[in-house]
Amino acid sequence: MSGPGDMVQLHGDVGIPQLGLGVYRSPAGTSTRRAVAAALDAGYRHIDTAAIYHNEADVGQAVRESGLDRNEVFITTKLWNDFHGYEAALQACKESKARLGVDQIDLYLIHWPVPNLRLDTWRAMEHLLEQGEVRSIGVSNYMVRHLDELAAHASHQPAVNQIELSPYNYRSRREVVEYCSERTIVIEAYSPLTKGQRLSDRELGTIGSPYGKTPAQVLIRWAIQKGFVVLPKSTNTYRISQNADVFDFALSSEDLARLEDLDENLATGWDPTGAP
């Protein structure tokens, strides 16, 4: 399996491409299929979807129609909140696999730390891993207290924690980033482009100009140099390709520091920091 950039190793010697296409809020149907097709044409080999996005079937169709072997494309999907609990999680995974049209999911994540049921749900995730239904398991939107709870009960630690991450909230999230780093839990950065909310920031343009790079490319490159798996989302064919053009330059240490000075504890969507 190959693609733009490096592979990051997960538990169990599973490699995940560092750059992936996110399809959050990509409309089901032609729009998502075209976005995935454009990404695969541009060299992406990692697609990140979820049951709640209602576009798993379109992701699966686009991968099949690409002509690439299944083992060349890394597919992530996620268990939604309504399907927590042991049996419900097993059934939800089965249904996601059917919608995707795959025999095995590369990475299956708990989408959100739902109170009371998440430990039973994790037992189901471990079962799916042990039975080979999925290659890797992980979590999303977990903070340190959620990970500590999991660590005290789990037989298998999560391979991944997917959280919203950009220079605009990095220092605010440093505690969970460092916790994961110390335990070889790979951080995946979703909404690395701040859902467009900070792309007109003058500082991003100033930093990117000497490199000949856009604000979006600067943000993606920052995440890559921090060692995160990064998941920019777009349905625009040109921007999908442009977002992958980030492996021919490196931000200086001074520019990395300037970017991290932009922290404002930004949360553009769900904010898990207060989740019980």
Q: How many discrete structural domains?
A: 1
With helices defined by DSSP (H or I, 4 residues minimum), what is the helix count? 10
By CATH, the topology is: TIM Barrel
The appropriate CATH architecture is Alpha-Beta Barrel
Structural class: alpha/beta
Quaternary status: single chain
Major β-sheet strand ordering: 3-4-5-6-7-8-9-10
CATH superfamily: NADP-dependent oxidoreductase domain
Q: Supply the CATH class.
A: Alpha Beta
Helices and strands, in N-to-C order? EEEHEHEHEHEHEHEHHEHH
How far is the first residue's CA from the last residue's CA? 38 Å
* C-alpha-based Rg, rounded: 18 Å
Features:
two-stranded antiparallel ribbon, eight-stranded parallel beta sheet, TIM Barrel, 10 helices, alpha/beta, 276 residues
Written overview of the protein:
With 276 residues, this protein is of the alpha/beta class. The chain has one domain: TIM Barrel, CATH 3.20.20.100. Helices cover 37% and strands 16% of the residues. The chain contains 10 helices and 10 strands. The protein has helices spanning 30-41, 56-65, 86-100, 118-130, 144-153, 174-182, 202-208, 215-225, 237-243, 253-260; strands spanning 7-10, 14-17, 21-22, 46-48, 74-79, 105-110, 134-140, 160-164, 186-190, 229-231. The strands form 2 sheets. An 8-stranded parallel sheet has the order 3-4-5-6-7-8-9-10. Helix 1 (30-41) packs across helix 2, helix 2 runs parallel beside helix 3 and helix 7 crosses helix 8 (215-225). The longest helix is centred in the middle third of the chain and has 15 residues, at 86-100. The termini are far apart. The mean pLDDT is 96.
